[in-house]
């Protein structure tokens, strides 16, 4: 057992990066037509094996207790609890919200982010990129060869191909996340050619999927990363560290979290509101209906969401359109699914993470999270760990200890583990 523990410690980053890649590879299946086939169970088994691996790796990294002396064990246990208060509180909240919402997503999020706290993020981002790319190519290949169906959606004059996914937007979203990972991983060598290549990739996918919002976000990401990279990083860090810039960040974060709630709660069926809603493709209207029908609980609830995924034509499309209740805006959907307490916790997690990135001058991470926050206005990606690998940036906010572990963005020091090399993005 001791030898196994030493091997885990010595190869922690590599093992975690591999598990991360396998997890995101298996997660792409959940938004593809594969999920409707008999092969879905194989991917589900792979995801559960990844959960087990994340749990074992996190336990291996978070400290050992002495079992030879009961009093010594008790003291070390009390010390460990005292230095992991935030983690324990988040874990309890995750268990409660998972129980009330009848879903594993909160527990999985805490589990993966905890394991990521003890490894350099570039390694994990590389694993996520490889996993998502492999998953995307597998789904697209199966659709191209006719093994799974390539749904075709017709919107006005646009013909939209889902490329093997349950809805065209899902394919475009996967490519957008891969694009952000590329921009973050190549930050030090970023140039106009890389940004242009990333944008062209999104344009090629857009020609098939017609996902306009994702293409706009991809263009904004490329522009934002390229502009920020042109500014000398010492000068950028000096600006980001100023109190007024950090105050602006908190104000903008409050607005982006609160504005969807205000708009949807104030919606009525007047001509003015219907005109405004038309510019959001019905997101305000369906957000209002979600608030009206389900409300916002304290700790979460189970909601059966009905969208257009997998309903390309015929009776399935008519039934989905008739029963449609899906709330695309991540901020509202999170509150309806998981409640006020979880929503406030996520807000604070994003806020402290972005504040920490600003103080450390981590421009690439700030750019990536800024795009995620904007994307979440129209897509439910804010806390969807299976489609949002940048939630791993929240690791220091979750697992910073009061003692024993001094985790910074540059130099995480973990007792029993080799120096991880730091979070450089």
Question: How would you describe this structure to a colleague?
Answer:
66% of the residues lie in helices and 2% in strands. It has 18 helices and 2 strands. Strands 1-2 form a two-stranded antiparallel sheet. Strand 1 and strand 2 form a beta hairpin. Helix 3 packs across helix 6 (105-116) and helix 8 runs parallel beside helix 10 (212-230). It is globular, with a radius of gyration of 22 Å. The two termini are 35 Å apart. Residues 401-425 have low confidence and may be disordered.
User: In what order do the strands lie side by side in the largest sheet?
Assistant: 1-2
Radius of gyration over all CA atoms, rounded = 22 Å
The termini sit apart by 35 Å
What's the main sheet like? 2 strands, antiparallel
Helix count, DSSP H or I runs of 4 or more residues: 18
Outline of the structure:
The chain is mainly alpha-helical and 425 residues long. Helices cover 66% and strands 2% of the residues. The protein is built from 18 helices and two strands.
Outline the fold blueprint.
Elements: H1 2-10, H2 12-28, H3 40-61, H4 70-82, H5 85-101, H6 105-116, H7 121-144, E1 152-155, E2 158-161, H8 168-185, H9 192-209, H10 212-230, H11 233-240, H12 243-266, H13 271-278, H14 283-294, H15 314-323, H16 330-360, H17 363-375, H18 395-399
Antiparallel strand pairs: 1-2
């Amino acid at each position: 057992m001791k030898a196994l523990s030493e091997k885990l410690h010595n190869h922690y980053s590599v093992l975690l990066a591999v598990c991360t890649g396998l997890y995101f590879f298996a997660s792409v299946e959940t938004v593809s037509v594969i999920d409707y086939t008999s092969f879905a169970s194989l991917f589900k088994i792979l995801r559960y094996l990844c959960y087990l691996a994340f749990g074992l790796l996190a336990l291996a990294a978070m400290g050992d207790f002495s079992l030879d002396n009961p009093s010594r064990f008790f003291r070390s246990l009390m010390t460990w609890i005292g230095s992991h208060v935030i983690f324990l509180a988040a874990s309890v909240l995750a268990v409660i919200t998972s129980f009330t919402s009848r879903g594993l997503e909160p527990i999985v999020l805490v589990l993966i982010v905890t394991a990521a706290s003890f490894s350099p993020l570039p390694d994990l981002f590389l694993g996520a990129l490889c996993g998502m790319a492999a998953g995307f190519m597998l789904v697209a290949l199966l659709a191209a060869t006719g093994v799974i169906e390539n749904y075709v959606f017709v919107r006005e004059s646009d013909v939209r191909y889902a490329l093997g996914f349950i809805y065209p937007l899902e394919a475009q979203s996967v490519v957008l996340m891969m694009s952000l990972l590329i921009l973050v991983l190549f930050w030090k060598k970023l140039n106009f050619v890389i940004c242009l290549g990333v944008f062209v990739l999104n344009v090629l996918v857009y020609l098939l999927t017609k996902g306009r919002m994702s293409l706009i976000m991809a263009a904004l990401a490329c522009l934002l990363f390229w502009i920020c990279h042109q500014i000398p990083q010492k000068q950028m860090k000096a600006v980001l560290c100023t109190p007024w810039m950090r105050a602006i960040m908190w104000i903008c974060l409050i607005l982006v979290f609160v504005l969807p709630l205000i708009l949807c709660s104030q919606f009525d069926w007047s001509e003015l509101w219907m005109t405004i809603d038309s510019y959001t493709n019905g997101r305000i209207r369906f957000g209002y209906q979600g608030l009206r029908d389900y409300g916002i609980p304290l700790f979460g609830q189970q909601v059966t969401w009905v969208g257009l995924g997998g309903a390309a034509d015929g009776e399935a499309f008519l039934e989905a359109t008739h029963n449609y209740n899906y709330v695309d805006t991540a901020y509202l959907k999170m509150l309806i699914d998981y409640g006020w307490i979880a929503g406030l916790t996520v807000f604070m997690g994003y806020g402290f993470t972005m504040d920490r990135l600003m103080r450390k001058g981590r421009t690439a991470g700030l750019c990536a999270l800024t795009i995620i926050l904007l994307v979440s206005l129209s897509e439910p990606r804010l806390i969807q760990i299976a489609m949002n690998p940048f939630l791993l940036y929240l690791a220091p906010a979750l697992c910073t200890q009061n003692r024993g572990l001094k985790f910074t963005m540059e130099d995480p020091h973990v007792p029993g583990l080799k120096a991880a090399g730091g979070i450089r993005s």
